[in-house]
Structures are given as C-alpha cells and as structure tokens.
Amino acid sequence: MKLAVTATGDRLDSEVDPRFGICRFIVFIDSETMDFKAVANVAGSGGAGIAAGQLVAEHGAEVLLTGDCGPNAYHVLNSAGIKVITGVHGKVKDAVEAFKTGKYRASDHPSVQPHHGQKLS
Description:
The chain is of the alpha/beta class. It has 3 helices and 5 strands. The chain has one domain: Dinitrogenase iron-molybdenum cofactor biosynthesis domain (Nucleotidyltransferase, domain 5, 2-Layer Sandwich), CATH 3.30.420.130. It has helices at 48-58, 71-79, 92-100; strands at 2-7, 25-30, 36-40, 63-65, 83-85. Strands 3-2-1-4-5 form a 5-stranded mixed sheet, with helices on both faces. Helix 1 (48-58) runs parallel beside helix 2 (71-79). The longest helix is centred in the middle third of the chain and has 11 residues, at 48-58.
C-alpha cells in the first residue's frame, strides 16, 4: 500500500510534521517494502492544504499519515479516495509501523479549523 507521511525532513528517521498543508516534506512509502521517495512541499501560504492534497493524490497515495488536516485539504483528499489519519507523531518509519499494526484509524472529518498553524498577516 502506498502511504504519504508529512515529515520535517526527507528521511524515514525524520519526525512526522504535525502540519499537513505547510509541512516541509511528504514522504511516499510502500508499506510492504519500505521503499520511499521524499518530495519537498512547495505549497505557499494561500491554498497550501489544497495544493498539498493534490500533490498526495498525484503521487497515488492511498493513505495520508499526518498530525492535523484542515477542511480544505481534507475535502481534496477525501474526494480523491485517500484515507486521512490524523494525530500521528514520532518518526516517519515508526508511524508507518504503527499504521501496519492497526494503531491508527482513518478520520471522518478534518482535525482543525481553516488556516490552523499558519501565521496570518
């Protein structure tokens, strides 16, 4: 299964980034082989959640593991058939292992309000 995990760095031992739309990287991982590719998230401040959601969909992920996900991003991901799992923390590789053991369940709604985690001017 192809997973997407928000991350502070481009490695499996990087920490899960708690902010979906403005995370530094999205790590795409094959949960069976643990082969991965890290992609820099270049979404700007306006519409970041939507752009990051489109990036996850374009890379064919089936599940997203992240700390929080706002309503716009959640809508994009849900519309693409991607399961969203929030409340994830720790190292990317540990989050994947926890997912594989059934620790996490998909969310049926966004975990934060619009623009959560963003500095608004």
